[in-house]
Amino acid sequence: MLSKDQPAGVAEQALEYVTSCNLPTTWATFRMHAFVEPATGKEHIALTLGDVADGQPVLARIHSECLTGDALFSQRCDCGPQLEMALQKIAAEGRGALLYLRQEGRGIGLVNKVHAYKLQDEGADTVEANQQLGFAADLRSYSLCDPMLKHLGIHAVRLMTNNPRKIAAMEGMQVTVQEHIPLIIKRNPHNERYLSTKATKLGHLIQPDL
To answer: Which residues of 139-176 are buried (b: 16+ CB within 10 A; e: fewer)?
Structure first.
């Protein structure tokens, strides 16, 4: 059901706002906003802190779901540490937004992600593993950010990301990216090849030789 305080026009989008609540965390009490895709039933959330609809650029991150990294503390990727770092930065500033999109495994889903990890155990890199399963290297779409940002009243961001596709997506939605803020995570023996592959094959703004 569409909330009575939902901005006009969002009902025509592929995403509908549902409701909001407070979310106390280690760093701050965020406001959590729930959205649903009517066509698929898939649910997404946004976390905000402070007044993000005041017209000023908002410290923001677009984060795709990574159960293994975000919740199970996997060291195979940099997802969990990036999520934590982004929330810490928003809390320290006292204002910001994080869009959490349910796009596990760069869009291939959790079970296929496990299949991909098995192929990586056998020698494939993260891109090769997706391709061997019959998927593109990255199936994520950021179009859902548009109705989320419109609902939140955000028109300009200081975007925390290493992924140039996210910057391009914001600009394609007429959202001003005033600043790009890298989120560089310390390498370990488990994520070294993964990070280098993201830099060399997916164009992520990470130094591959660090």
So the answer is: ebebebbbbbbbbbebbbbbbbbbbebbbebbeebebe
Question: Are 150 and 194 spatial neighbours (Cβ–Cβ below 8 Å)?
Answer: no
Residues 6+ apart with CB under 8 A from 128: 119
Q: Provide φ and ψ at 50, rounded to 5°.
A: 75, -170
| Strands 16-24 and 29-36, sheet pairing | antiparallel
3-state secondary structure of 20: strand
Beta bridge partners of 48: 31, 97
Residue 135: how many other CB atoms lie within 10 Å:
18
Active site residues: 138, 140
- Do 80 and 70 contact (CB within 8 A), yes or no? yes
Q: What are phi and psi of 103, to 5 degrees?
A: -130, 60
Residue with tokens 């192929």: 119
Give 10-residue mean pLDDT values along the chain (210 residues).
Answer: 36 80 97 94 96 96 95 92 96 98 90 93 90 88 92 96 89 90 86 75 62
- Exposed e or buried b for every residue in 55-67, given b needs 16+ CB within 10 A? eebbbbbbbbbbe
Give the Å distances, CA to CA, from 144 to 16, 18, 30, 123, 174. 10, 15, 21, 34, 14
